[in-house]
Specification:
Elements lengths: L2 E5 L2 E4 L4 E8 L7 E7 L5 E7 L6 E3 L7 E6 L4 E6 L8 E8 L13 E2 L3 E6 L1
Parallel strand pairs: 2-11
Antiparallel strand pairs: 1-3, 3-8, 4-5, 4-9, 5-6, 7-8, 9-10, 9-11
Length: about 120
């Protein structure tokens, strides 16, 4: 059973950047579609970005296109989310998640294992 641990959250001003990391253990990492999901205060979980098994295919929600980049390294069992030009509306707890389906999962409900989350706060 895969376990996921995120790191890299923090507080930045609008326009700043953060890089979130997620380390996986257990299971076969290269067989999982991976993604990032966030939950803002008082809101439902929101899909942010996904990456396919091989890392070749990526998918983003419209609000982060051109600003966020998801990547993975199957040799290191890691996935990252580079976030640039951050906006106050990006403030949320960000979760790394894995999906048993593939090659890519683009909805929240497809993910069945989650990390503990890391807080990202963007001030204006």
């Amino acid at each position: 059973q895969v376990q996921l641990v995120e790191s890299g959250g923090g507080s930045v001003q609008a326009g700043g950047s953060l890089r979130l990391s997620c380390t996986a253990s257990g299971g076969t990492f290269s067989s999982y579609a991976m993604g990032w999901i966030r939950r803002a205060p008082g809101k439902e979980r929101e899909f942010v970005a996904a990456i396919s098994w091989s890392g070749i295919n990526t998918y983003y929600t419209d609000s982060v296109k051109g600003r966020f980049t998801v990547s993975r390294d199957n040799a290191r069992d890691m996935v990252w989310l580079q976030m640039n030009d951050l906006k106050p509306e990006d403030t949320a707890v960000y979760y790394c998640a894995s999906a048993p389906v593939g090659p890519i999962a683009t909805t929240v409900d497809e993910y069945d294992h989650w990390g503990q989350g890391t807080q990202v706060t963007v001030s204006s």
